[in-house]
Batch of 4 targets.
Target 1
Amino acid sequence: MGFEVVKVKEDILIENSKKADELRKVLKEKRIYFINVMASPGAGKTTLLVNLINKLKTEFNIGVMEADIDGDVDAARIVKETGVKTIQIHTSGACHLTAQMVNDAIKQFDVDGLNLLFLENVGNLVCPAEFDTGANINMMLLSVPEGDDKPLKYPLMFEVSKIAVITKIETADIFDFDFQKCQQNIHKRNQNAKIFEVSALEDKGTSELANYLKDIIQGR
Amino acid sequence: MGFEVVKVKEDILIENSKKADELRKVLKEKRIYFINVMASPGAGKTTLLVNLINKLKTEFNIGVMEADIDGDVDAARIVKETGVKTIQIHTSGACHLTAQMVNDAIKQFDVDGLNLLFLENVGNLVCPAEFDTGANINMMLLSVPEGDDKPLKYPLMFEVSKIAVITKIETADIFDFDFQKCQQNIHKRNQNAKIFEVSALEDKGTSELANYLKDIIQGR
């Protein structure tokens, strides 16, 4: 070939995984279940979270970490529409959260007494998938307007997510979205992925998802 | 507001800056000038590099580090079209290079005897701007098809780049690109930015840029 090939990220990922495992251990001792929510910008993460939190908050003491490069509109909305404890994490430009960043945030966010913690990760279908945040489970959202081919283009996000939620299903007619093809594409990346189809706006499919979350949290 | 705001990236950036300063010191001792080239995918980084290297290789011993998430088409092209020493860096999914990653790559890339080192960073207008790579200077490319408003939308990339190269100027008529507005937008972000307008395809403006690089390298 005339040139060498070097891989340079292993060390960083190994260190991050170690930190993520430590964090999982700490949260397990505190009996806090931690769900990392990932998606592109505009896929409907905050809207779905508001919906799910209002269905789950009678049974769980919920906390939310809202991660954004800057701004705090999502945190303000969670507080206003659900009333649960919320913290805004600013990544100062970073396109993802590392386990270290989550750990730093949790230090400033009194999590004692909580038993369910959501992280709304930075809106991005690439970078957040690379870094284990220390969560018990990854839940990713794919909105109908983004297209049914996304699992083919962004494999890692689908590989690392146990739960894949297809959102904004009320727009399927406009966007010619093929649910069956999308499910096949998701299962190509992760054959054990649990797929939900929801419309947070019309409150469709969200109870099924909330019940599934209840089951896995209580069965931990 | 009802919620706290936490900033979580300072430590990582401080550590990266320290590593970048160390790397700059090592390269200075070896008398190697290091240029970090950044832009969106498809802005014409490799094409411009081939053009510049062929203009500069009689005066400098040049090495190229090609960073990509995966693949090696750009490294193969640099070797084929310039013949200079090239290394392919795979970031295994990472959207930018840290100083540590560059350092790891340089360890495997025998840089002794070189006096000019180019890094073609991962194609991305956001993430690479956040991390000091240890380079002496950042050169960013903005292609005409991307639009003259990009300095407003991606401020950091323009703030950290001493050299801004507007590429693909041969397409300006098709895209209704306002050069004066673009220059104003760039100078809003970095009033000392040195702006070049080039067409690597038609070999326009590239000699001025090559001469400018010669001057800054020899004047270091």
Note: The two ends of chain B are 50 Å apart (CA to CA).
Target 2
Amino acid sequence: MKTPTPKNYQVPGFKAAGIACGLKKNGAKDLALILSTTPAVAAGVFTKNRVQAASVTLSRRTVKKAGPIRAIVINSGNANACIGKQGMTDCKTLIDRLARELMISKEEILIASTGVIGVPLPPNKLTDGVPELVEKCSAKGMNDAAEAIMTTDLTRKTAVARFSIGKNKIVIGGIAKGSGMIHPNMATMLAFVQTNARIDPSTLQQALKEANEASFNSITVDGDMSTNDTFIVMANGQAGNKPIKPGSKEYAQFTAALTEVSKNLAFQIVKDGEGATKFVTVRVSGAKTKNHAKKVAESVATSSLVKTAIFGEDPNWGRIICAIGYAGVPIHPDRIVIRLNGATLYENDNPTRHASMDSLRRKMQKPTILIAIDLKNGNETAEVYTCDFSYDYVKINAEYTT
Amino acid sequence: MKTPTPKNYQVPGFKAAGIACGLKKNGAKDLALILSTTPAVAAGVFTKNRVQAASVTLSRRTVKKAGPIRAIVINSGNANACIGKQGMTDCKTLIDRLARELMISKEEILIASTGVIGVPLPPNKLTDGVPELVEKCSAKGMNDAAEAIMTTDLTRKTAVARFSIGKNKIVIGGIAKGSGMIHPNMATMLAFVQTNARIDPSTLQQALKEANEASFNSITVDGDMSTNDTFIVMANGQAGNKPIKPGSKEYAQFTAALTEVSKNLAFQIVKDGEGATKFVTVRVSGAKTKNHAKKVAESVATSSLVKTAIFGEDPNWGRIICAIGYAGVPIHPDRIVIRLNGATLYENDNPTRHASMDSLRRKMQKPTILIAIDLKNGNETAEVYTCDFSYDYVKINAEYTT
């Protein structure tokens, strides 16, 4: 669906660049760099797919060491996955080259990739691009970086939030990519967030996990989980605030802002979902446990039949209750209430009679759809975000070349 | 995909009929009856969806009682689900009327429904149809019954198998419907099998479970499971064979023939999958457990990305290995071998180099696709059957009216 292009942003002490190194055949930007001018700490979450790109293996390892991080390098157009040992060799070659150019340690560089699986990286294209990449790196380069990580994305994705800790102004900004293969536990998406806040790595990891759960782990486009998913936050401490401690008011502020940026990026991914024409929120309340709420929301948000009905602007609550029924969660069908953009569709074990089907259909014509499900079985809630399932999803994915 | 229309069949001692009672707006057949001329035993499996049609609740209960069964009545055009207590009342009214017409006990009648959820059955249409239904019931009526249970199906589905126990000729014949909402644990499908074999209800239930696992529980079209799935076998013993005992040679013969009929019907459902252009077998070998094998096969067969790639005739093994990776089963990515219609696509942690991409694409152009995956991690195997994911799937499901 058409969305306004988000604005460029700057985070104090961060620079970025995006260039075309020749991986994408159409000459589009395909190599990005995010650089902190001073050593930063990093936290990250990565795909749970057992088949993983070399860059995921390497970055996961580096983040775990919790040492200082200066840079993230990202290529699009090639996932660098499923090509045996060559994948790791190519990762290390690129990192070596970049470390020399930036005159920093190899251990200070994270790496991520996205694109076609199983095709070896063309030799030298990435390393040959490094000098230009470093030269172009500037405080105004975030838009270029956001563009250089796109694959089937129609728009670049950026988001920013600001708040203060005492006199210290904190900025949290991020870029992301993703439009297909999006499913809880992240799926094909990359997100890179930068902040000038001072925070230690383990507290940052905790905040990131909370933000991730409410954002990237709550969206689904097509139920497929990729080999390359990566969400990394870098914090360079240049705001000079007192370090943020877990459980403090500042931690709550920071996590709220980080969640806001992450959700904003996640929503942009759903709106850019392959062939999407509508943004759908599935809100489940009255569940016995948080896990039940999320399972039911995911079941509805993942149903191809629900998603094609939304594309067809059909208030088909039957497919919704059906997907609730096979979520694998104990429910009382006779208690369930289903509302669609405010209109009650199902209640008291029966569909609601409506004066006019036309007014219901008009509600379906909106670009934003809220499916609210009350299980009346407890007090827990969850939201999952998705898009509809259109002809264009099939078109895009039938024609995307191996 | 276009398939030859299967032939009519007869099972000794069974009659059937299919008529139009007015549930379907277009005047097509929508009420079916299968009748045994003598008391039969029945076995059945039903949807695991927690939201269930009244007919499912009722038939499950009747089958469990293991008493004599004479008839099954099935309507299409209305699922009789999610309409509160009215659903059960309407079931019982129809059964009462039919019992009087056939002069048999209400306890001897099973019932099944398929169609739109949440719309109450129009009063009297079903009961008014009963006299014509009974009058038309004949040994040659199976095709009419098969037609009367169709919803979005493009073709009626029948299958038959024959074998001998000594001098006794056993016939097993069946009808089925289903084209969307098809997923393991049965999903929107109905199947009714009749046999003249002599077998007690618990042995029949055991044979049915084996046949079901290899057929209806191994197919997926779109990952949605319905409120109405039903698979019932009736055996009237008119062949006069010595009763079939578990563990016997005859049991093995009977189960093989029942599996053959069930698989045949299940394959017809997949081929008639909404918008399907190809029949896809996902065969997993080298798994540690049977459950692992099936989970991996299901993960690949359910992936929208794999299914759109097959529609696009694209040998995209990357999406296959990706779906293997998120199946939730321990694997060794470096051992996996993926073959597509005989051509090795992935081996030794690397995609296989092919002399020509054209020959690979030609293999993809066939209407039948075999994805063979060797996990090289054990000796267990499983097969799951599915179809591709085309524009027409979206079209059919966006336009099917609530």
Note: The longest strand of chain A covers residues 31-46.
Target 3
Amino acid sequence: MADHQPRVVIIGGGFAGLEVARALGGAPARVTLIDRQNHHLFIPLLYQVATAALSASEVVAPLRQVLKRHNNIEVMLGEVTGIDPAERVVLLANGHVPYDILVVATGSGQSYFGHDDWAEYAPGLKTVEDARTIRGRLLAAFEQAETTTDEAAQRRLMTAVVVGGGPTGVEMAGAIAGLARQTLKGEFRRIRPETARIVLVEAGSRLLAAFPESLAEKVRAQLEGLGVEVRTGCMVEHVDEQGVQAGGELIPAATIVWGAGVAASPAARWLGVEPGRGGTVPVDRNLRVAGFEDVYALGDTALCQGRRDQPLPQLAQVAKQQGKYLGRALRRQVEGRRWPGPFRFIHYGNMATVGRHAAVADFGWWRTSGTLAWMLWGLVHVYLLVGFRNRLMATIQWLWHYLTGQRGVRLIPADIAARSAASAKVAPAAEATNPALRLVGRPRRAA
Amino acid sequence: MADHQPRVVIIGGGFAGLEVARALGGAPARVTLIDRQNHHLFIPLLYQVATAALSASEVVAPLRQVLKRHNNIEVMLGEVTGIDPAERVVLLANGHVPYDILVVATGSGQSYFGHDDWAEYAPGLKTVEDARTIRGRLLAAFEQAETTTDEAAQRRLMTAVVVGGGPTGVEMAGAIAGLARQTLKGEFRRIRPETARIVLVEAGSRLLAAFPESLAEKVRAQLEGLGVEVRTGCMVEHVDEQGVQAGGELIPAATIVWGAGVAASPAARWLGVEPGRGGTVPVDRNLRVAGFEDVYALGDTALCQGRRDQPLPQLAQVAKQQGKYLGRALRRQVEGRRWPGPFRFIHYGNMATVGRHAAVADFGWWRTSGTLAWMLWGLVHVYLLVGFRNRLMATIQWLWHYLTGQRGVRLIPADIAARSAASAKVAPAAEATNPALRLVGRPRRAA
């Protein structure tokens, strides 16, 4: 009877949680996947949504649709507020769900290193809303720059600062450069978008700390070739609506993107365990949370030791592999078979792309950069996208973008457009330079 | 010298305004197109965004990109607050733009017949935000229905009411039926989305007043075949968050869409003219506003007499034809040539689609319904979409949707998802029916 099957509750439908659920499809267990969104989100491509190259719909997949054919799995839209391990229930905003086996895959958020007030001015790249906000700010800033003639204000509007020299920051800075220098070029009458200033700020001594130094140097050169100012060894001291203060200098900027700190979800607090680095939940090599028999954590939420006792990095490929491993292991368990050996991470490589024909790839045994790396990057990311439709649409968007330089998704959300439109100081400042906006006494009549 | 060229200011980048601007590309005039959005919006397909079939990016086109190659045209993101005809300036929220020739193409909004407080519960279909709100509410309602076991609440969550039996209402009702009965079918474990109740309410005696009665009857049969309750001669009396009261009956509904009344923009007030029906600006057959020499109005904003002194309907094809006419006429004027004859509307026909293989088309000399009308509808709408990329993407989405029944854009905006997740009353009500949610004392352990 289904009623006697163990109840597996998975919190989070990201890379880790979704893989666990998939692996349990058809297993003798009742599986409930809880997420506060109705969709899985392909976060590594979110920066392309933020720069108008992809539509949000191309980087999401409805969880229900992905898991539709597995009758033993149910999806629940819910906001988890806590866990009661004694009673074995997950607490929701307005209810609770009992479990026999609990899988915590709640991912990570942005860390502002104690300056949470910076979040308003410097959104990270974790949700569809983050991406839409950044896209709106970027595009609205160029619109406002077009109608203002206050040179300092214009300069600020045409400056974007990206904080963090990891893959997210590097890809974001490159994509903003592409947007300004390629897509928007020639579409304005009073500003030249290709002169936009893009600054990439990194506190560490070099970009892409996880990559070999030679490739990091190549990326730096590629970014500088696109006109991005790369500032390594430069610490952010303050962020507000005017811009970023970093390395003692104020950089006035209308668009600020935060790609620096990663903070784990509140899962450690929920479970009452001593958090590891960045708020993570320490787990053993079976991904089991210390002190619990049937609670597992994985992905960005978990602190898991890899080879030479180094903690595994917070990467999509770690989350995915852990999800597959744990799903299969739990499947064996509920089928009454032996738990497999401990989790082993296989590092397939790192990739980062900066722009057209500009990327780096590190497979350990082989490193490459330039066009080949860029093409590999595209292939791998299309392959990884969940759902054939998303692969197809993203491929077409990219081909289109490549062939025409146009970006398909240049939508400014209404609230940002309204603020922008209202703040456009068109006259009298504009009179000086723009004939169409000049107002000298009573206008002449048409001939 | 460019400075002596007349200044043409166009307010609004919809079907009418965009055509005027295009026709003036390269003309001896300095053209400024002002819009409060950075994009043109293909409103006739917005209901497909609201029902997750198309992505918002597929029904918008960035105004700058569309007009890029015309160096005499500039695009301005701005919120018009008024017009000063004596000084010949358009007033913006934070400035002003002088004109020699003014073209008012500000479109229309929803009219709630004096009940503006209904707007919150029953959004119309005029903006991308409207469509995203409706999509979010529709999808979130099914999510909430899945987790509640209060039968009355579940019934309300699985009910959608569409107000207005014109093309918008008919297409919307049909699309919601398709979403529930086709796309979402089989994805839930405790509700059957295909049993959703969809009610189409129309105050008049029949649907599609602009179509021949025989086709309106066909559409009614097509809708009823999809399980839509069609209520004609039924007046809406009240709308609130609980639902709609219509024809003396309260219909509890979580999703309400307003496709009934159309109200023109505040252009008549700006110009200080006596408004026509629905707040429109009366114009002569040259589209000139009475009492002004160089102010024109067209599209939904304008009240223009057609044949037999019948006012022209507020349709995209009227706006487009007027825009082409006025753009060419103004071009002749600024080139010093003669103004052409008066505007003549050529009615190419009406179409409405209800769902797969279900549509009607009326070309006056020929009427058809069913699969052929549906295919024609698709062809015509792909052809009309602005921009080759949008045509391509929409075609692929439609083919995909047709072949698989899946919809690509099932995104619930975060704010709606959060409200929905927080209000999901999972327990104890859910305990009664859902084994996964049952909590009986201390849960059994897994075997």
Note: The longest helix of chain A spans residues 128-147.
Target 4
Amino acid sequence: MIRSFDPRTGEAFGPEFAATSEHEIEEIIAGAHRAFPLWSGTSPAKRAISLRAIADALDANAETLVEVADRETGLGKARLTGEVGRTTFQLRTFAQALESGDFVKPVLDAAVDAPLPVGHPRFLRTVIGIGPVVVFGASNFPFAFSVMGGDTASALAAGCPVVIKAHSAHPQTSQKVFDIALEALLNSGAPAGIIGLGHGHDFGKVVIADPRISAGAFTGSKSGGRALFDMAQSRTNPIPFYGELGSINPVIATTSGMTDPAAFATAYLDSLLLGNGQFCTNPSLLFVPNNKEFLDAMAVNLSAREAQPFLSKATKDLHDRNRDLLVSLTSGRVQNAKPAPETGLYTSAQVHIFAAQEISSIEAIHREYFGPTGIVITYESLGEAIAILDQLEGALAASIFSGESEPQLKEIIISLSRIAGRVCWNAWPTGVAVTTGQHHGGPYPATTSPLHTSVGVFAINRFLRPITLQGFSDELVSSLNVEGGSK
Amino acid sequence: MIRSFDPRTGEAFGPEFAATSEHEIEEIIAGAHRAFPLWSGTSPAKRAISLRAIADALDANAETLVEVADRETGLGKARLTGEVGRTTFQLRTFAQALESGDFVKPVLDAAVDAPLPVGHPRFLRTVIGIGPVVVFGASNFPFAFSVMGGDTASALAAGCPVVIKAHSAHPQTSQKVFDIALEALLNSGAPAGIIGLGHGHDFGKVVIADPRISAGAFTGSKSGGRALFDMAQSRTNPIPFYGELGSINPVIATTSGMTDPAAFATAYLDSLLLGNGQFCTNPSLLFVPNNKEFLDAMAVNLSAREAQPFLSKATKDLHDRNRDLLVSLTSGRVQNAKPAPETGLYTSAQVHIFAAQEISSIEAIHREYFGPTGIVITYESLGEAIAILDQLEGALAASIFSGESEPQLKEIIISLSRIAGRVCWNAWPTGVAVTTGQHHGGPYPATTSPLHTSVGVFAINRFLRPITLQGFSDELVSSLNVEGGSK
């Protein structure tokens, strides 16, 4: 049985959800399989209508949704109201992409009458939906990366039915969003089976292994994501698996980038502790010049900050265990926030401070804490910091705070570019805009698929497979449901 | 020791190649690792100069290269001369793409001053090389899919150094091509370590597992490719692995597409037996109306065809073993070519004929023979053929021969589109033009990465990772070596 817990009290509430049965799983997958040719054969313009219908229905129910999500996640109504807005904006962004055709630029390659290797017949290179997709909802974004989040929206936009695994930390929110979306989809003409929802740990394992599923998308922990990735790759027919896993998002400030050390300390803690640090773009690792004013200001600012609740007991326990390991390394150079309440899922924030020179192995600092824990590394020279940067694993984002005339600027940017999917100039990595220019991806373990983004218009490309039609006339192409043909 | 064999005599000849030692492997990988920032930081225009230098050097040595390749592969000088031309055309096509910038369309997404979720900072979304790449040469294309084939050319174009595993069936050709290319690269200013070549079975296994390698590309058998794919995915940090494995490329003819049955039989055998059937786009499975004229003409035409040599003893043995299994199923309905010579690596061509109705399990026909063996399925109604098509695995290509007014045309095309990366209209699948409109890919087992092509300009995308620069000024961007910035 899956049950909601209130992070502010740690107590269970609301209905129990039974794990989806074997028979129900089969029905969901079979439904998606049957829906695929119908949905994939639906014109982009009609798919856009369905996406807008979901967005409208979610907006109309925003208040109720936020209420239940707030009780399940403890993220607060302001943040959650914004997240519903982001989710429906995302659905409409994909609708717009479908209408404008921006998401795919079919290549019409006219026949060339010449000897080989130059000559060739007429080619139309376009895209088709990859097939039914399984999406795993995330704990930290109950709307934007869950049932009707970016993964589902982009897969539906691509013409793929979606089987969704509800996250166990917010089953009520998941079920409500699903019910609203399904009704909107069916009323707008989408085929039966277009989306399916399942609960329970086994659901995901069964679905990802099913030969009728053609791709997977996941946002969550490195261990959970890697396990699913391994299942997807070890199938008889391996499938693309777009996992957005853990990320340490390094931030480096030069002296010229930290002209007001106290303001910089405040801004850092604001980004670090946003959503209780439970963001994949959290600035886990900050490199700063060894500056007393910054460290003192940070200590004062942090000491006044209240604890926020964790999303779930599992998340809190993992964070606390990992931090215990860290504490033994940095005793004496730890700054603390206000003590946490005794009841509920609270842990007080901490910042651990290291000197760059004392870091002999990056292992201790090279861990995602996914919670209110920051690591600050003070350096005497930029070279010390760059040497550590060059040892880091893949990251979703990285930031540099600096003036433009810093001598080692180019070196730092190249170093950050080599590990990160997004490099921010004088801005914190948290906050991921949904737009064409976005890239929310990066080398492993940031993602399992470094060529793709899970945010922004290009996210749709993950679920579209290129196909070339050779020697097809315009008449023949327009009789098919492919982009570049009839719309 | 690796040794060349003459397929026409089955006898060893020429120098022995020692398996690359552990120490040499380390030097090659370390060289590629050191070369990456230098090559990736080389402007596209300069990388284009290097690609053209390789093409010029190969063209200048074409005669010598063809001579040794012919003796190692038995493919014939005409075909091999054409293949060198295709290889150098390919190198120049990528050079041209680098010069025109066609391969990457950087997205400049201007800042939007509005509340969330609409507002956002300025984004430049561009691409950077993924890192050092390992390429596994193919047996059946000693030039176009080997040392300086499409995989290497596209990886070099993307700014990635390449570590190459020579195919054991043509070590001399591999070494000669490598030596010529390396000299051309270094003379044109490419950094030391830009390419490395290794021999021997262990070489590939060690390289694919090395953490300094960021992607792999392979063309070859399903078993070999899958083993390497599994190694790449089970690394601590999994990497993209672009395997082009086996493919049954179904061809279906309607009555209106086979108006001259005898000419159709000749064209079929020409495509089936091209290169002794050792093509990944070989039309392994042909669906035709049950037509006596076609079957009779095919028997006569086939009986006059001479045997051609296999590329290697391993390829011949695997083909012959698989065909023995098939023979027991179709006794009595087998057509034969001329008997094969006793010496050398020859096997006589065969076509095995089934009626669609008698196919209870697709397993027997669902195998890639990679040699001079065709399966022809005769149908009484198109529905019988479509029912079998719908059970087939992913394919690189598929063909339909038909008139445009065939009632079930759309149904057939949709069925073929769902399994194939390229659908040909009234044309055989063999012959893969190197051009922008090409897609040489498809669902597993055609490839391990159905979103990508290994032929054509878009092949470069496999080795480019998107990256977003957030809030960077034009001045700052132009100081970096990224597309959309300085060239």
Note: Chain A has two domains: 2-245+447-478, 250-425.
